[in-house]
Please model this.
Amino acid sequence: MRRTQTLYELLTAAGLVFAVYDFSQGPFVTTSALAAVLYAAVALGLTLLILRKHPGIAHGVVWGIAVSRVAGQLNESMNHLLIRTVPDWLVIAGIAPLTEEVLKFLGVIFICTCVIRSRHWADYVFVGVAVGMGFSVSENAVYYANMTLENLDSDLRGTLLALLVRFIANPLMHSFFTGIAAYGLSRRQPVRWLLIAMAVHFTANFGPSISTAFEDAFWPIFPTFLILIGLWVATIVSIVKLRKILPAEDTGAKSQLLGSKA
Model:
């Protein structure tokens, strides 16, 4: 167990070093850098505040940040390998779910087995949520930088547009995906639920991928919006159900405890 924890710590440290180096080498302007910092402060601050009663949240956030750029490099390398033999839309939609979900899920396994003592399925799920949020913050920083540079009219306008686009695209999606896989780990069905998380991630990427592959066509906008709306609905429904289930389970546990004392 100690060796596993040491491996986890070394991988986290290496990932963070690589993330910092990768960001430092990339192009960015002041407005996109400020947007990334402000978004990270708000998103991570709320995550740590809302989930403060659950163990391993800070570890999850850090792991998500650490593996984000590693996943980005793997995605790019696999894209170069497959782009000539596999259809564009399938490459764009299919690579990220494989690399990103496996790397994020690996962090959930490390944290829930050798860092914290997970006693409830929600402990697994919320570690997954934290990993996803850390990953999302790091990934969005790259999007802010790139979209700002692509807007030749104004850095401020480019940054605001990037913030809007990424918000519409659902900033909680990575938390949703990893939460699904983490739930499977709590139920001792990790492979099945990891595959489900990958499938949901693939579906989320499908709309943008066909829009890119058929950029001159108008029809891809319809499946894109349907998928986007479906993802938002699934995320909101999951949050509502968690808010209902957890207090009920806590109340039931307390009632059993009081009954045993009597």
Summary: Residues 2-261 form one domain. Confidence is low (pLDDT under 50) at residues 251-262. Residues 221-261 form the longest helix (41 residues). Residues 6 and 114 are 9 Å apart (CA to CA).
